[in-house]
Write a structure and sequence with these properties.
The protein is mainly alpha-helical and 192 residues long. It folds into two domains: 1-48, Arc Repressor Mutant, subunit A, CATH 1.10.10; 52-189, Tetracycline Repressor, domain 2. Helices cover 74% and strands 0% of the residues. The chain has ten helices and no strands. It has helices at 3-23, 30-37, 41-47, 51-70, 79-96, 98-108, 111-119, 127-139, 148-167, 175-189. The chain is globular. The chain starts with a helix and ends with a helix. Keywords: DNA-binding. It holds the Pfam family TetR_N. InterPro entries: BscR_C, Homeodomain-like_sf, HTH-type_Tx_Regulator, HTH_TetR.
Length: 192
């Protein structure tokens, strides 16, 4: 895909992200997205067959961007260091990219998530990256052999909860508080 086409598609994604954060899924018509992205409505349909496809593709786009950021990790780090690093990178990314954070949160609570679970492989939206990371730790005997949903609930759930607490003003983004939180998570999953 050439740069101009990629830029149009990215403009559509970014406009959709902004408008969905402002108006929700149902309050964001394709015509409004086109106007905001400064493209013709037909251009959107050139890339996406429907609004549903645009939204599910936007979810994959957001997850890819998030994973590229959080998994940009030095291979020389120990597993524990990677565990802490990835978690902190996720919190930092969501705090710096709140539109992506809120879109992903809204997406998981919508029928769109059910749709991709039924029709898409987890690699489509990047869930396999985290699964592979946890599997590596389990196979090496570093973390406890518990289910992926349990691990993801603890690890990602704590990160998203912390982002919400900071965003809502219930707590400030303090280094010590974050270090305490990830240390507690590590102590819970560490295979001592």
């Amino acid at each position: 895909m050439n740069v101009q086409l990629l830029n149009k598609k990215e403009a559509i994604f970014e406009s959709t992200l902004t408008l969905i954060n402002e108006n929700g899924f149902h309050g964001t018509p394709m015509s409004q997205i086109a106007s905001h992205a400064n493209v013709a409505t037909g251009t959107i349909y050139h890339y996406f067959a429907s609004k549903d496809e645009l939204i599910t593709e936007l979810f994959a786009y957001c997850r890819v961007k998030t994973n590229e950021h959080i998994f940009n990790v030095e291979e020389s780090l120990s597993y524990k260091e990677k565990f802490f690093y990835i978690w902190n990178r996720l919190v930092d990314y969501y705090l710096a990219n709140k539109k992506i954070f809120w879109f992903i949160e809204q997406f998981y609570s919508s029928p769109y998530y059910e749709l991709i679970q039924k029709t898409k492989d987890p690699s489509y939206y990047g869930a396999d990256r985290m699964r592979m990371f946890f599997t590596e730790g389990i196979h090496a005997g570093i973390i406890r052999n518990v289910s992926f949903p349990t691990l993801i609930s603890l690890y990602i759930g704590a990160a998203t909860s912390h982002v919400k607490m900071v965003t809502y003003g219930f707590c400030q983004a303090q280094k010590q508080g974050r270090e305490d939180l990830i240390e507690i998570i590590w102590n819970g999953v560490n295979n001592k």
